[in-house]
Amino acid sequence: MQIFLVLFSFILVVAFQNCGQTGFGVLTPPIVDSLASGLPQDDPLFGYAWHLSNTGQKVFASSQAIAGNDLNLLKTWATGNYGQNIKILVSDDGVENVHEDIADNFSLTVNSRDYYTQNWDSTAAPPTDSDFHGTAVAGLIAAVGGNLKGSAGVAPKAKLYATNFMSDGVPKTSDVIADQPTGKADIVNMSWGYPQTSYTAIEPAFEDQLRVGVDSGREGKGVIFVKSSGNARIEEIGRGVDDYRLGFCVLDDYNNTPYTINIGAYLATGIVTNYSSPGANLWVSSTGGYDGIKAPAMVTTDRKGCTLGYSNSELQGQSGAIGSGFQKGKNGNGGCNYTVQFNGTSSAAPTAAGAIALLLNEYPKLTWRDVKYILAKTATDANHDFDTAENYLYSINRTTYANHKSPTGYEWDTGWITNAAGFRYSNYYGFGRLNVDKALAFASSYKTIFSGAFSAFSQSTSGLNLSIPDYSATGVSSTIAFSSNLSIEAIQITVDVVHANAGELAIELISPRGLRNVVVPMNNSLDQTANMSNYRFLTNAFYQEASAGNWSLKVIDGRTGNTGTLRGWSIKVYGQVK
Fold first, then answer.
1. Average of per-residue pLDDT values in the chain
2. Whole-angstrom distance, CA of residue 527 vs CA of residue 495
3. Out of 195-209, 224-238, 317-331, 477-491, which region has the weakest mean confidence (pLDDT)?
4. How far apart are CA 197 and CA 527, in angstroms?
5. What CA–CA distance (Å, rounded) separates 529 from 106?
6. Of 157, 150, 5, nearest to 92 (Cα)?
7. Phi first, then psi: what are they for 361, rounded to 5°?
8. HEC profile for 364-415?
9. Are residues 354 and 489 in the same domain?
10. Whole-angstrom Cα distance, residue 287 to residue 259?
11. For position 117, which CATH number holds?
C-alpha cells in the first residue's frame, strides 16, 4: 500500500526539462496586521497558499504559479461558510491533534481509532516519528483559520478525527483495512492506495463498508468518500531496460467502485501534474502542487519541531534547502511546525474533502449522489499536457520507447470527450477542476435529480475465444445488448483476457451512441504481466447517459510479438432506473 506523496524522481525531468530557471525564489512572509479580523486570510502563511488564493506566488520554488488557478472559494468564505461542524475522518498514519493549528478543530467527542494500541477511544496520534503524512493532510482540510498561526484549511472550522492505520507500526490486516470507511463521519479522506505496477483486487469487506456508508451514513444521505487517484502516471516498473511505464488508477481496484470520489491533481499553473494517476474512474481534480523546488508545493501543517516531519532532511532529502531554511524554522516558520513541500494526490484529496465540507455545511440535505452530480456539473475544463494521439513516453523519447509507438491509425487516448448527457470528461481531469464557488452557486437552486433508488444491473458474455491481432489498430470487439435502461452513474466492466503481456493491451468501451472511452490505454504499467484474469475496471465517462442498447468492448494490442484471446467480459451499470 502507498501513501500518495511525490518527491524527487525521474518524472521531474519529464516535466521541467525545458524550465531553464535556477535558484530559489524566496518570498518575504506576508505582513500581518496587528488588528487582525480573525479571517483565514489573516494567517501569516496564507500568502503561500496558492490553492486558496493563487496570485502567481513562487512559494520558494524556481518557477511560479499562474494567478487564478486555485479552488475558487473566497466568495464562499466571505459568506461565513467555513465548513462549521462537518465531521471529517482522516484515514492515514495519524494526526498530531495537539498541533497549534489543528487542536481547536480536532474533535474529542467523535472517537478516533488508534490501531497501534487497538484503542477505539483515542486521539489516533501518529505512533512513530516517521508518521507525519496524516498531519499534513489534516492541515489542508481544516487547519484553524484566523488564529494568526500557519495557514488555513479549505474548511477552517470543520471537525477532524483520525485513524492511524497507515503507520509503519500497524499491520495492514484485512479487518484494519475494512475499518477505514466506518464511523460517524460526514466525509472520509483516504490519501492512500496500492501500487499501480500490478492489478490489486479490492478487499470485499472494504467495499461492503463503502456500500454501508453511502446507504446509511449521514442519516441515510450517505457518507462522502474522497480518495486519491495515485501518483502513478509514470511508474518505474523495474522489469526491463526501459524501466518506465504509464500507470492508471483503474489498476487499483480500490478506486473501481461507484462509492468513492477519486481525485486527480493539478499544478499551481492549472495543468494536470506529471505524477497524477489518470484513469476512467477519476471524478474531478484538485490542487496537488509539485516538489517545492522546481515548482510550488502546498503549505500545510507538519509535525512539531525541527527533528520531525518534513523538516527532517534525513527523511526528505533536500527539505532543509527549501525557502532558504523555511523547513528548518526560518522565514516565518519558527518551531518548524509547517511545510511548503507537501504534494501529490495526497494533497489533492484533502483539498477536495475540505471543499465538499463547505458544500455540505451550506446544503446539509445533499445526498452523496447529489454531491457527485454537483461536482461533475460545475467542474471546469483544463488543458492536457500531451498530444492525445500518441503515448507520451514515446513522444518524449522515441529511441528508448520506440516499441511503444501506437499501431498505425490508432488514437492512443481521446482527450476531452462530451457524452450524450452533455458532460465533458477526460481521463486526466475527470469532469474537470473542482470549482467551489461555482458548486455552491449551482447548489443554491439545485433540486435533486435522484428520486429513484441507486440500482445496479449486469450482463455478461463468455466462451468467446476471440483472437486479438498482433499490433493492429483494428483489435477485436465484442458486443452486449444491454436491456436495462438506467440513467448511468457508473459502469464497471470485467474482462477475461489471455495474453502473454497484458501491459501491451488497450481496453476500450464504446456506448450505444458511439462514444469511445479508453478505459485502459496500451503500453501501460502491467508490462510483462500475463493475462487479465477477470480484472474489473470502472468508467465515469458515460455519466447520466441512458444504458439500454449495444455496448461494445474492444481490445487492441499495442506492441509486436504476442497475440492473445478475449474469452469473455461483463458490464455492470449503476444508476437510477429510467
1. 91
2. 17
3. 317-331
4. 8
5. 45
6. 5
7. -65, -40
8. CCCCHHHHHHHHHHHCECCCCCCCCCCCHHHHHCCCCCHHHCCCCCCCCCCC
9. no
10. 22
11. 3.40.50.200
Q: Does the pTM of the predicted model rise above 0.70?
A: yes
pLDDT per residue as tens digits for the range 386-438: 888 899 899 989 999 999 999 999 999 989 999 999 999 999 999 999 999 99
Tell me which residue has cell 516531519. 309
Which conformational region is residue 379 in: left (phi greater than 0), alpha (psi within -120 to 50 degrees), or beta?
Answer: beta
Distance separating alpha carbons of residues 157 and 81, to the nearest angstrom: 9
**Domain with 202 in it:** 2-378
**Is beta strand 455-461 parallel, antiparallel or unpaired with respect to 564-577?**
antiparallel
- Which residue type does 138 have? A
User: Does 239 share its domain with 125?
Assistant: yes
Residue with cell 511505464: 245
CB-based contact 138:107 (threshold 8 Å): no
CB < 8 Å & 24+ apart, contacts of 440-445: 440/75, 440/76, 440/81, 440/358, 440/359, 440/362, 441/378, 442/374, 442/377, 442/378, 443/359, 443/362, 443/363, 443/366, 443/374
Q: How far is CA 456 from CA 490, 548, 549, in A?
A: 9, 13, 16
- Do the domain assignments include residue 206? yes
At 482 the three-state DSSP class reads: strand
User: Judging by beta carbons within 10 Å of its beta carbon (0-12, 13-18, 19+), is residue 135 exposed, middle or buried?
Assistant: buried
Q: Is residue 420 part of a domain?
A: no
Cβ–Cβ under 8 Å, residues 406 and 325: no
The 8-class DSSP code of residue 197 comes to: S
Q: 109-142 pLDDT, tens per residue?
A: 888 999 999 898 899 999 999 999 999 999 999 9
- Comparing CA positions, the residue from 537, 430, 427 lying closest to residue 492 is 537
467 in helix, strand or coil? strand
